[in-house]
Write a sequence for this structure.
């Protein structure tokens, strides 16, 4: 993990909400289309299990993404993601709406993003996070940088880090009737 480890550890102890961008964070950033223009995304099951564990442990989970895609909605529903905001070209108002709904402050929020549209949130949250392959401008402001790339376990690494920081035991959880 890059960034200021002590700062990240202290920040992680206060987290109640984990919010994520999708492309380049929950996926590797690739976009695949079929001959009919249908868009496909590939997600990491280890990331999925990490998110299921966070929900099970009482954390609020959220997706805030600029794109609008049925695959993302399906993934969020499978993982019981608490909040999903798609089509958010400017993401900060969506995060503020979630924070207001749950009576949270920025110090209670972890956000993982990988590119310039995420900076507006990363500059404000208590635990600013990015995958290893984020753009330089994002890496420069994050206090948690995953050791792996987006779509390759970065979300899971963050989930484990927060659980460890808060002394919450990691356990095996099966998402009932749903795929990770």
């Amino acid at each position: 993990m890059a960034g200021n480890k002590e700062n990240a550890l202290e920040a992680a102890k206060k987290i109640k909400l984990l919010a994520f961008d999708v492309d380049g964070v929950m996926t590797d950033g690739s976009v695949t289309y079929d001959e009919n223009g249908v868009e496909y995304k590939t997600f990491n099951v280890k990331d999925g299990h990490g998110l299921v564990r966070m929900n099970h442990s009482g954390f609020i989970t959220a997706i805030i993404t600029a794109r609008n895609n049925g695959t993302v909605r399906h993934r969020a529903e499978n993982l019981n993601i608490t909040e999903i905001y798609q089509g958010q070209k400017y993401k900060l108002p969506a995060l503020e709406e979630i924070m207001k709904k749950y009576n949270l402050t920025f110090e209670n929020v972890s956000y993982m993003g990988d590119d310039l549209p995420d900076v507006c949130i990363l500059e404000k949250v208590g635990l600013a996070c990015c995958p290893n392959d984020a753009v330089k401008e994002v890496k420069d402001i994050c206090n948690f940088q995953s050791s792996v790339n987006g779509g390759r376990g970065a979300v899971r690494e963050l989930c484990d880090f927060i659980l460890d920081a808060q002394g919450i035991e990691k356990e095996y959880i099966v998402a009932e009737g749903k795929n990770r």
